[in-house]
Amino acid sequence: MYFEIIGKIENRETIAVEGHIHDIMRLQKQFGKGRWKKVKGVARIKLETGKICRAEIHWYEAHGIGKRKMKIKRFLG
Fold first, then answer.
1. Which letter, b or e, does each residue of 22-39 get, where b requires 16 or more Cβ atoms within 10 Å of its Cβ?
2. CA–CA separation, 63 vs 65, rounded Å?
3. pLDDT (tens digit per residue) in 24-58
4. Residue spans of alpha helices (H) in 1-77
5. Is the sign of the CA dihedral 12, 55, 68, 47 positive or negative?
6. Any idea of the CA torsion for 67, 64, 30, 74, to the nearest 10 degrees?
7. What is the largest CA-CA distance in the chain?
8. For residue 15, what are the CA distances in angstroms to 48, 50, 51, 55, 67?
9. What tens digit of pLDDT does each residue of 59-75 get?
10. Are the C-beta atoms of residues 57 and 40 closer than 8 Å to each other?
11. Strands of 52-62's sheet in order across
């Protein structure tokens, strides 16, 4: 699902680091080696339809590589 983040991501929290990430081998092969973290946070997003809402989002990030594989985990009221 396509979405655009509006504003800042709040309540950032690291869920897993390197060896505890299930897809670490795929991430390193696709984007390169780095200190990968799985992170979650809450943000206002704009959906393809134009609707704006708050959602919990998850993504992977590594220093020097940036945020990758962002996905909506759940919509918030």
1. eebeebeeeeeebebbbb
2. 5
3. 999 999 999 999 999 999 999 999 999 999 999 99
4. 24-31
5. negative
6. -10
7. 38
8. 27, 30, 28, 17, 14
9. 999 999 999 999 999 99
10. yes
11. 3-17, 37-47, 52-62, 66-76
